[in-house]
Specification:
Blueprint: H1 6-14, E1 20-25, E2 31-32, E3 37-38, H2 40-48, E4 53-56, H3 58-66, H4 71-75, H5 89-101, E5 106-109, H6 112-116, H7 124-136, E6 143-148, H8 156-159, E7 165-170, H9 175-185, E8 191-192, E9 197-198, H10 203-212, H11 218-230, H12 241-250, H13 256-259, H14 262-275, H15 280-294, E10 310-315, H16 322-334, E11 340-344, H17 355-358, H18 372-379, E12 384-388, H19 397-407, E13 409-411, E14 417-419, E15 424-429, H20 444-460, H21 463-467, E16 473-475, H22 481-502, E17 507-510, H23 513-524, H24 533-553, E18 560-566, E19 569-573
InterPro entries: AAA+_ATPase, ATPase_AAA_core, ClpA/B, ClpA_ClpB, P-loop_NTPase
Pfam family, one: AAA_2
GO molecular function: ATP binding; ATP hydrolysis activity
């Protein structure tokens, strides 16, 4: 049995040497203390017994200011409560004066902002300086303990280079703590109703459960067990322990990976090649990732991996099908494109904008809305997420993405966690495209991989991040002349079919497809280096617009229309 959680050991070792303690991190979990578990309130009660601790909260401050006669009542407050900001120097001085006059030796304050007031207040620096002088004075023989989730909520002058202050991070439970905790709960788990006997927790399942619950609080692990009891979950050898944890994380949702038919996977390559032209190598690679995902073999080198089902980095020239491939992949696996989410990384250029992914800090606009990325993954755990043109984002964003790449999880500004274990994550970039020249054409794959490496080395400053992608870096090809012709022909055929669906009984054909393709190739001209993205614009400008004018003004209700090239223009006749 574990005697004490690590943060408690540190707290006790410094209790006699320090006057102020700043506890932050996982403050709402259970912890080991004296061969049992307890929350933070219970710990302080067990630790200090009848020694009076005052838990400052809204009610306490209000009563303390109102009347001296209510002092006894205030001393009985023994639970953390949400507070309000103090906004005036008078309020703060009254509180410090009460500290000086009170008999209690140990004081606990949930939120430092509750005590010091709003940092935007004009006299905030004065209140902080006054408090620092107070704790450093000989007349202060009290222990003052601040508790909050984020280190940034503490005044910097309080925590930096202050010999009287101990800053203690309350981390997620270590593996040995989770192991002990899980063993204590086994009697509640995998109950066999038919025999009325408890089934054994298979050693392999135990080890898997231990690994995939890393970075989870003890209370969260307890809730997984409690759900098993509540829903009367019976141990099913055919159902993996990972699936059972997924049931807790995502609800009773059927995994598209489990239901993915072999015939669907076999048709995947055909669908991809139909929609994405000239990228056979990329398609072949993506197909292998899907095969591994179907068999749950991604991350098999680490048997207890909680990483995303698939992670890929698409790089290469612009407009060659990187986003389109991700969309088709989503459609093939999840049935439609509603499970596809694209993040335009040019919207995350500033360090502050990164918070949009996980939500704004308390007190800032958008706090109650949560994070764009965390909201998506909590609602769509089975999805394909595309971070488009990642090189346009602030490089600090990789600190956020590392949590996803390593742990398969991300926590928002309110403490809610989203899990990426069943999703595919794709990053794209056009790094090096602007400098691509004739010399680079000799070995395009090497050129783009070298450019990617330079980006992580010189701009991000962390090549090890790129190494986490391993061989999952996919280089897309430049589009050749033949492929451009194929793309133009397919787009024209698609447009004609869509027009005929919208105009009943219409017969619309192209007189000479080869001549029509050459017309659009000439219009592309030097823009080919920007990929096929311009093809749609050109077809809309020179084909769809001209057809609309012709059909509206000159058609005379004829149903058979022929498109042809004349005088360097697309024209139509009945």
């Amino acid at each position: 049995m574990i005697e004490k959680s690590r943060w408690i050991e540190k707290f006790e070792s410094e209790l006699e040497r320090k006057k102020v303690f700043c506890l932050y991190g996982s403050i709402d979990d259970d912890y080991f203390y004296k061969e049992s578990t307890c929350d933070i309130n219970e710990f302080f009660e067990k630790k200090f017994g009848d020694d009076k601790f005052i838990f400052f909260g809204t009610d306490y401050f209000e009563k303390m200011i109102e009347s001296e006669e209510q002092q006894d009542e205030e001393n009985e407050i023994n639970s953390l409560s949400n507070g309000v900001f103090l906004n005036t120097r008078v309020d703060f001085l009254k509180n410090v004066q009460k500290l000086e006059n009170s008999s209690e030796k140990n004081i606990i304050i949930k939120d430092p902002r509750l005590f010091f007031g709003d940092s935007s207040c004009y006299d905030y620096s004065y209140t902080l300086r006054y408090f620092l002088e107070y704790i450093n004075s000989e007349k202060n023989d009290r222990k003052i303990i601040f508790i909050c989730e984020n280190l940034g909520d503490f005044p910097e002058k309080l925590t930096v280079n202050n010999p009287y202050v101990s800053t203690i991070y309350i981390d997620y439970p270590e593996e040995d703590e989770r192991e002990t905790y899980i063993k204590d709960f086994l009697k509640f788990f995998y109950h066999r109703e038919k025999s009325g006997q408890e089934s054994s927790f298979i050693k392999e399942d135990f080890n898997i459960f231990l690994k995939i619950t890393g970075k989870r609080k003890l209370k969260e692990i307890a809730n997984i067990f409690k759900k098993s009891v509540k829903t009367k979950t019976i141990y099913d050898p055919s159902k993996s322990i990972k699936e059972m944890v997924n049931d807790y994380d995502f609800g009773e949702k059927k995994s598209p990976w489990v239901n993915l038919k072999n015939s669907t996977i076999k048709r995947l390559e055909t669908k991809l090649k139909k929609r994405v032209k000239g990228q056979d190598e990329a398609i072949e690679f993506v197909k292998k990732v899907v095969y591994r995902a179907k068999l749950n073999l991604n991350g098999v080198m680490q048997p207890y991996s909680t990483k995303p089902t698939g992670v890929m980095f698409f790089t290469g020239p612009s407009g060659v099908g990187k986003t389109e491939l991700a969309k088709v992949l989503t459609e093939c696996i999840f049935g439609d494109e509603s499970a596809f989410k694209r993040f335009d990384m040019s919207e995350y250029k500033s360090p502050e904008s990164i918070n949009k992914l996980i939500g704004s800090d308390p007190g800032y606009v958008g706090y109650n809305e949560g994070g764009q990325l965390t909201n998506w993954i909590m609602s769509n755990p089975y999805s394909v997420i595309l971070f488009d043109e990642i090189d346009k984002a602030n490089v600090k964003i990789w600190d956020t993405f590392l949590q996803i790449l390593e742990d398969g999880r991300l926590t928002d500004n309110k403490g809610n966690t989203g899990y990426f274990t069943e999703s595919i994550i794709i990053f794209t970039s056009n790094i090096g495209n602007a400098e691509f020249d004739e010399q680079s054409e000799k070995n395009p794959r090497k050129y783009y991989l070298d450019a990617l490496n330079r980006y992580f080395e010189k701009e991000v400053g962390r090549v090890e991040i790129l190494n986490r992608f391993g061989n999952n870096k996919v280089v897309f090809n430049h589009i050749s002349e033949d492929v451009f012709e194929e793309i133009i022909e397919n787009r024209l055929k698609m447009v004609i079919e869509n027009i005929k669906k919208r105009i009943k009984n219409l017969k619309l054909e192209i007189e000479n497809m080869e001549e029509m393709k050459q017309f659009f190739l000439k219009k592309l001209d030097d823009s080919k280096k920007f990929g096929a993205r311009l093809v749609n614009t050109l077809i809309e400008t020179y084909f769809i617009n001209e057809f609309s004018i012709f059909f509206t003004e000159k058609n005379n209700k004829e149903n058979e229309i022929m498109a042809f090239i004349k005088n360097e223009k697309v024209e139509f006749r009945c």
